[in-house]
Amino acid sequence: MYYWNTHQLARDIKSNRVSAPEWKHYFIGVTLLGTVTWYVSFISTNTSTLGVLYELAISIIIFLWGIQKTYLTNLGDDGFDYVCRMIALAFPLYFKAMVYLAIFITSIEFTVGVMSFSSHTIEWLYTTIALSIQAMIFIRIDYHLAFINNP
Fold first, then answer.
1. Angle at Cα 79 formed by Cα 88 and Cα 70, nearest 5°?
2. Which residue, 79, 95, 96, 151, could crosslink 75 as a Cys pair with Cβ 3.0–4.6 Å?
3. Does position 138 have pLDDT exceeding 80, yes or no?
4. What is the per-residue pLDDT for 57?
5. What is the pLDDT of residue 24?
6. All residues at 6 or more sequence positions from 142 whose CB lies less than 8 Å from its CB, including other chains
7. How is 58-88 classified by DSSP, letter by letter?
8. What does pTM read for this prediction?
């Protein structure tokens, strides 16, 4: 796996020298780097650094679990097009999640206005929702990969 030499990686991709486990490792790497970068940006603006760090740690666990589980469901090293399948299946699932989330957040905001929860409670509620969505998306992708790989 290359961390710096993208030119050599491009050569390996062009000559089909990147194995299925290496593709999975690149997928894990970009997922983790993207996740950490996303959460680090919140630390400077968020009121609860502990909350952000907690969510980051649980997100990393969910991503590692989800990627490993779906990789094995896609027949592991013997499977085909794991990263492409993950991206293709994740897109509509994330799209659906965003639509449902917009509806759910609207109802939460209305409820918060009526019930007057503390900002700390609201923050933990959103953290729980975000982590639940991540886990559910991996569960659904795993379901679809099982369908694809079942003869």
1. 55
2. 79
3. yes
4. 92
5. 93
6. 66, 69, 70, 73
7. HHHHHHHHHHHHHHHHTTGGG-S-HHHHHHH
8. 0.78
